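Regression report. Comparing outputs from two consecutive submissions.

Submission 1:
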Amino acid sequence: MAKYLADELGAEERADFESKLVQDESFSLEFEAYMNAWDLQNDPISSSFNTEEAWNTVQNQITETPVVEMNNSKFSFLKIAATLLVLAVAGYFIVNQTQVAVKDTNVFQVHASSASVTEAFKLPDGTVVKLNARSKISYNAEFGISNRNVTLIGQADFDVERNESMPFVIEAGNGRVEVLGTSFDVAAYPGKMLKVAVTEGTVAFSSKVKEDQKAVLNQGQKAQLDTEGQTLEVSEKKDDNFKGWWTRELNFDNTPFAEAFDILERTYQVEFQYPDALKGCAYTGQYGANDTIDNVIAVLESTFPSFTITKKENQYILEGTACPK
């Protein structure tokens, strides 16, 4: 968790960590508690804190992490030790830095959506956010006062309140989005390309890993950044479906499976599995707000009768050897 907050994880480690944040509710809650208790990134006293000395002080009191039998199950004291470590080091701060007033700037506000529900809300600066299911936005107590920085995991649509003197910044995976005030959509799912689509205004989109990978996107443009943060590609192609997860209105016109299924997954919170040989198959279909994933599957089955489609929980598995001619 500390390495994640300090941006010291590799691309693969970061993707795994963020995926667990979205999928594991207990881990997500633990992480939120960790952020609230022990995020020192923006704390004014962090520059004078001797981390090594504090660690050595606590380490001298830790001899082992035992495992004992409790109610016929093994119980590890590792979490308890880690919690005590946080409290001990926090105590070190209080004792040794009493001359510095500790602010609550490191308390994070978190908006997290459930596995099947989208939600809309306003940020303190007036920005309207529509948050897709299985998504999360966090920001610190100084939001709207000294900064307008948020961290996004998942997908959200932003209608940013304009502020010429304070840019609105989104940190997402290996990418960064910066605007003054505009409307746009960001898809930042762990292990997948980071995607930005602009409804109106101008958006600055860049890689945090490779400085020369950056672009200014205008209305109607979209861009994507690979998972490693190495390559940013801008597209002029109009995309009517990037807001489909919110409006539930989708229009596919000879759209490749890979693109169509990615949109369907984010709209209906399902997963499609299919052979690489089918990625380029062209798919046509239109869906409205009242359509469900069952309607989508029915159209697929009638359009591609040679394919076999089976359902396993929230997964749809397509089997076939080649695209029909």
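Submission 2:
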Amino acid sequence: MHWRVRGWLVVAALVVGAGCLGYLSTRHTWTSDWSYSQSATLSPASQAVLAQLRDPVTIVGYARPGNDLRARIAGFIQRYRRFKPDLTLRFVDPERDPAATRAAGITVNGELVVHYHGKVRYLRRISERSLTNALASLVRGGIRIVAFVAGSGERAAAGSQPADLGTFVRQLEQSGVRALPLDFARVHSVPAGTNLVVLASPRAPLPAGAVRALVAYVRDGGNLLWLAEPDAGPLGLEPLADALGIRKLPGVLVDGRGSALGLSDPRVVAAGHYPPHAITRGFAMTTLFPRVAALARTAMGSWQVAPILRSSAKSWTERQAIDDRHPSTIRYDAGSGETRGPLAFGLALTRLSPDPRHRQQRVAVIGDGDFLSNAGLGRAGNRAFGKRLFNWLLGDDALIGVPTHKASAAPLQLTQAGLNAFTVAFLVILPGLLACFGLALAWRRRRR
């Protein structure tokens, strides 16, 4: 009798415990992601963007009921709602309410419309990257116009060649940036409404009118990114450099610190520690710059100048020709006018903007453009640093610390032989082992 009561008490405790767990599961949610690179969990980049959205967000899904599309959309949005509870989702049936569907400009079943502060973004492709980019563009508050100077051999903003910037610019455009060419053979000044002008590594001298237009743009309060190169010849940009109070040191910056990272070419400058600045705050990724020009100030002026990229004490400006087959044979030669490091090769300039519509004018000069090129963008932290740089120049300080998206899950690639091995293992060997284990257990029990 004592053992029977004890058994019933154990059963009652189990029932009560299960009931408590069931009640708690309705009040609290716990998830665990075992996927490759945590690809089923909202990325830190998405979480950081959501943290910048101070007010409620409404998402309207135009999807027909009766299939699993609505359920998949709701499950996808729920990942965002766990970090932003005031993000709401509602559905509209395009067949029952065609007038509202046409008024919203919906053409695809399952299309999402994101509303925030009276602004909208449309999503035809449901993915974390597309929704997070849409939210980031809403954080900006509007489209940012970035004009890329063209016509003198600059890196093309829409180009696909290794030296062009097409890959990086397309990623910027997904988060509320619009890139436009700026050819001074067609226009005489920077168009009004331009948020940033990019002068990306010109290879030919700029016309005098183009230089005057750039100087006037900076004088009037415009933001500028100048990507310089060490081996560029005379480009006629001295008036622009004088307006900024900087100059490019002669020679190619070489740095022996890269040997610790396995870099055999000292012309590839690796940056892993950064001077304190809003662009570099909290940034701990290594960036690689293949061909670098060192920079220096020439005048104080009205600019506040801060280095954002600096070489190590093992660096100097090499002024002699470097043998590509044996680049590590170079030596520092003070007699030839070479300058020993540490040397700045990235400068951030700020001052009170002469334009009353803006509080601060921002300019950045980087002694290399390869780090943002199609060929160099995927190396180390180049993409992340580039996004930080552009967000700062555009005045979107809230987005500077937003990390880049992590890589998507790597697909499992199997040969036919590997597929056959998996088939035999899971359909023949594993069931056979389980059957043998069961037979052995039954035989052992019968012997007892």
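Expected: both submissions complete independently.
Actual: both completed, but the second showed a warning that disappeared on reload.
Relevant detail on submission 2: The chain has a mean pLDDT of 85.
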